[in-house]
Design a protein that fits this description.
This protein is about 10% helix and about 55% strand. With about 210 residues, it is mainly β. A 14-stranded antiparallel sheet has the order 1-2-3-4-5-6-7-8-9-10-11-12-13-14. Strand 12 and strand 13 form a beta hairpin.
Amino acid sequence: MTTLGYSANGISLGLEVSDDDGETATLGTVNTVSLGYTMGAIGISYDVDDQDDQEYDAKVTYTMGNTVLSAGTDESESHYAGISTIIGGLSLTARSEADGSTASGVTGENELSVSYTMGALTVAYAKDTGDEGLFGDEAETLTTITYDLGGITLVAKGNDQDETKFQQHSHSKLNNLVWMERAAFGLLFFVWRPYFSVFGAIECAGWFYPG
């Protein structure tokens, strides 16, 4: 793959030459041209290739401090609008897409992710209607709680398929317990409760992914 680029006075130009498109076994050179323009808080970008089934992406962004508004479209007529912002320890990203296709086969989707960090504790919630019916980390709704004990990071996850997961990160070592039913997850929290009372209290209260 060969990449060339040039930028000056807010204008950027790029050319990427690839041996193939990464989607088929048939080799063939694919050229992708990218154009971009930035004027103050506004950014405009456009990418297009020269395949027979041409692919392109067009996007406009507007930045206001820690908030970014975006809108775009592509060759599948998948039109979207989104917003991302950071307010203190709170991060929020929302995106709505019309038409197009998703991993679960749903046409169009809405995405929302919210996380809040307070000291060593981070709570995050994500929902993607395009992942309806999927499992694990790819499920439509995923709640994640992370607690940093200093050298050891504990992570608990739950999704809309009544699956739960617990991870312990210790420096370079990772103990990863596979997705399991909530009952087994509750037992794990009981064992870990002396070290992780915050998660234990949440699970016992039935807040963490109630049925």
